[in-house]
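Write out the 3D structure for:
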Amino acid sequence: VSQAAIAEAIVNVDDKTARALRQAAAQIRDFHERQKQQSWFTVREDGALVGSKVEPLESVGIYVPGGRALYPSSVLMNALPAAVAGVKRIVCVTPPTADGTLDPAILEACRISGVTEIYAVGGAQAIAALAYGTESIAPVAKITGPGNAYVAAAKKVVSGDVGIDMI
């Protein structure tokens, strides 16, 4: 989805929805900031260096249901933890509505959450695109987000090749 199309659609988000998305985003971000783990290291008495190094994934793909079930909250709940963790590339796939457009509230939630790429594709094929890549979608390290039975089945199939949240 082009940046111009995203900017145009976001203008169509009503003020009440935009305020609710911003408030929810602030609360979700605050929650995940508090649970964020830090790397730590120490040198034992015997001279051994021990510890834990915490690093964000390079990329995450989030699936956001579309069609009759439009949930901008799915964007916030999947993209914000990745953003807080420091994931550099956050990709959203979501099916277009019947007229071929994307819901403006979903696009606004993407903007608020730091999503860097948005693709108008849904279903099992969107999961496959995130896992293995296409000519226009580079693969990601992990896929999260809810979906129908076909999306869940696709996540199960790709789970050995890419990380998933759950089936």
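The longest strand covers residues 59-63.
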